[in-house]
Amino acid sequence: MKIKYVINKAEAKRKGYEKHSSGTYLKKSVLDKYYECGYLDLPNSKHSAEERKNAGEKLAHDYFLAHYNNVKSPILHVHIIPTTGSAGQDAALFYQERYLKAVQCIPHEFWPYVRQVCVEDKELTGEQSFPKQSLKNKNSVYYQKMLLNLGLDRLLEFYAKKIKKSS
Q1: d(CA 44, CA 142)
Q2: Residues ≥6 apart with Cβ < 8 Å to 74
Q3: Cα Rg for the chain, rounded, in angstroms?
Q4: Which residue, 75, 72, 59, 76, is CA-closest to 17?
Q5: 114/122 Cα distance (integer angstroms)
Q6: Is 38 helix (H, G, I), strand (E, B) or coil?
Q7: Which helix (H) or strand (E) holds 26?
Q8: How far is CA 5 from CA 8, 25, 27, 45, 106, in A?
Q9: Which residues pair with 19 in a beta bridge?
Q10: 152 CB contacts (<8 Å, ≥6 apart)?
């Protein structure tokens, strides 16, 4: 038995869904929210916020196509690759290798924040020992977002090297 949940447009927008060009409503990723709020912008940086967002999406894409998570990501449109036969295994191995190499290029200080936002699709929260609205907690969240940006910069440089090698 399949249960369908129907919500109205206002409720969908409140929950973070936006209308896609196909007419369906898709939930925005945390990375998209951070991009729209301007959190991925750094002053005096050689990389743009859009480049950082694309690098984070590429990492999530590699993670899901590597079949680390057997559930299709609700935030990404991934091409279905065959999971049987040598073609599907070769493709999964390719994405596994690329994902692991991308993870290795990110310093361990930045990795927890990149993983939380890009792969787990969870928002950054401050220290749990501080009250949520306190200045210390807000500073902690700001610090985490800066480390996220620095990690995305390293990821961006990794994917840029991969593109240069293939061309």
Answers
A1: 17
A2: 26, 27
A3: 18
A4: 75
A5: 10
A6: coil
A7: strand 25-27
A8: 10, 13, 15, 44, 40
A9: 25
A10: 40, 47, 52, 55, 56, 114
Q: Residue 127 has which token pair?
A: 């220290």
30-40 tens-digit pLDDT = 999 999 999 99
Judge contact between 49 and 40, C-beta under 8 A: yes
Q: Token pair of 84, please?
A: 């049987």
Place of tokens 């299709």: 72
Lowest mean pLDDT among 3-17, 48-62, 100-114: 3-17
Average pLDDT, the chain: 79
pTM reported for the whole predicted model: 0.74
Q: Across the chain, which distance is largest between two alpha carbons, in Å?
A: 55
Q: At a CB cut-off of 8 Å and minimum separation 6, what does 28 contact?
A: 16, 17, 18, 36, 75
Distance set, CA 63 to CA 55, 114, 115, 120, 125 (Å): 12, 13, 10, 10, 23
* Nearest Cα residue to 161 out of 8, 42, 55, 20: 55
Distance CA 16, CA 61 (A): 21
